[in-house]
Amino acid sequence: MRRGIRAAAVLAAAALALAGCGSDDEESPAASPSNGASKPPAAVELKIGMAYDVGGRGDQSFNDAAAAGLDKAKAELGAESQEVEAVTGEAESAREERLTQLAEGGYNPVIAVGFVYATSLAKVAPQFPDTHFAIIDSTDATGDNIANLVFAEEEGSFLVGAAAALKSKSGNVGFVGGVNTPLINKFEAGFKAGAEAAKPGIKVQSQYLTQPPDFSGFGDPAKGKTAAQGMFDAGADIVYQAAGGSGGGVFEAAKAAGGKAIGVDSDQALTADASVRDVILTSMLKKVDVAVYDFLQTVAQDQFKAGTVSFDLEQGGVDYSTTGGQVDDIKAQLDDYKQQIIDGSITVPTTVS
């Protein structure tokens, strides 16, 4: 989380080093996230402002996925960037100041990584009508110059929930959420639905690390480890984490308990610390990198559209990983569930019943 050009002291303008260098209707992504098609050259040069959530680059999860999309844009679209990140426990005014300084510094577009920026963005965006903004994981901030990049996290979580149930020997699995918010509730709801579909009557333990307005649950591996240890001690043999940087602690707990864990956002069998990669059964893939790159491409081609852009299972916006081969024996079953979701035979809940 802490590579690239960024600033930790968010309230000081000097720390940003910003020297010169609408509608709410749902839209389909400009290109299928999974089609891999080559992109035409950028029509304009971009100066991108990227405001990460707590932890920034290096979280091996959500922020790193956004960073991957930014890096691709810099390489393929000839863009430059300024990267800053949120600080645990900061006030709302700090996030507002961060976005303001990026816009004042001439960065356009500006991407807010995470729903915690919604209130700040709603205040800042109207002050800079010529700046294109995007926010990931929120539709609470809307406007003629705001694109809302959202995902069907519940669909991908259903698949890894099914994987957990099919691979569990104890009939007991767990879910660790970083912060108890409607967004993370979608991960839990999908995971529980998938587990119960694959093994009716399975026990699913759930725990959130913090409650709003405390968002430290996304960056506290020690809390993640303690929560997961409790689940393993209570009979779980597989734990799914949707907890950002705290997920590293869940992996450590799985290693110590001789259990398995499920990653989130990125393919964490490739990005987690090498000492724990073997405990990662699969990961719920959330293609934040695709969303970021596609958004930047539309801006580069002067095709920006305000409003909601959704990335779901059918579009390849979410999925499950197969790295390590630990779910190869159940892949056919998981792919059948995937097709049923795409066909509409299965409707995945977004809230926990």
Automatic annotation (TrEMBL):
Membrane topology note: Lipid-anchor
Keywords tagged on the record: Cell membrane, Coiled coil, Lipoprotein, Membrane, Signal
Entry keyword Cell membrane: yes
Pfam families: Bmp (PF02608)
Keyword set includes Coiled coil: yes
ABC transporter substrate-binding protein PnrA-like domain residues: 50-350
InterPro entries to which the protein is assigned, alphabetical: BMP_lipoprotein (IPR050957), Peripla_BP_I (IPR028082), PnrA-like (IPR003760)
Subcellular location field: Cell membrane
Sections of the chain in a coiled coil: 70-97
Signal peptide range: 1-19
Family classification: Belongs to the BMP lipoprotein family.
Name the UniProt record assigns to this protein: BMP family ABC transporter substrate-binding protein
Organism encoding this protein: Motilibacter deserti
